[in-house]
Amino acid sequence: MPFTERQALRIFALLLIVAFVGMLWYAGVLRPAKTGDDASDSEKGEEVYASHDCTDCHLAAHVLRAKSAKGEPGLIRVRKDEKTLIDFLQNDKRHETFLLISENDRRSLVEYLKRQ
């Protein structure tokens, strides 16, 4: 039985659909949402850190993750206390963009920074 052009197109279309679904899964669109525990807040905070101006001056998120895995200090050495950290970010001129992000993103970012 010869392989027809129509069969080749069907296989190609199926591969495109599988690739598209895989891309959506990888992007997080099709993955189930996580609940609001500390771990997911910290993960969301890493996304906020990586997608805002933080990496203009600070290490990239993947570098911080590697340092954390090795037990090395990352971003914060002194301001681990949540209140002190929030006060610093709200009042320091170099961190003015902290006030421009949503309250949920600020909370997630603080959870992430506390772990660094």
From TrEMBL:
Where does the Cytochrome c domain start and stop, copy by copy?
A: 40-116
Q: Which GO terms describe its molecular function?
A: electron transfer activity; heme binding; metal ion binding
- Write down the InterPro entries for this protein, in alphabetical order: Cyt_c-like_dom, Cyt_c-like_dom_sf
Q: Which residue ranges traverse the bilayer?
A: 12-30
Q: Which UniProt keywords apply?
A: Heme, Iron, Membrane, Metal-binding, Transmembrane, Transmembrane helix
| Keyword DNA damage set for record | no
Fetch the PROSITE patterns from UniProt.
CYTC (PS51007)
**The protein's name:** Cytochrome c domain-containing protein
The organism that produces this protein has a lineage beginning with: Bacteria, Pseudomonadati, Spirochaetota, Spirochaetia, Leptospirales
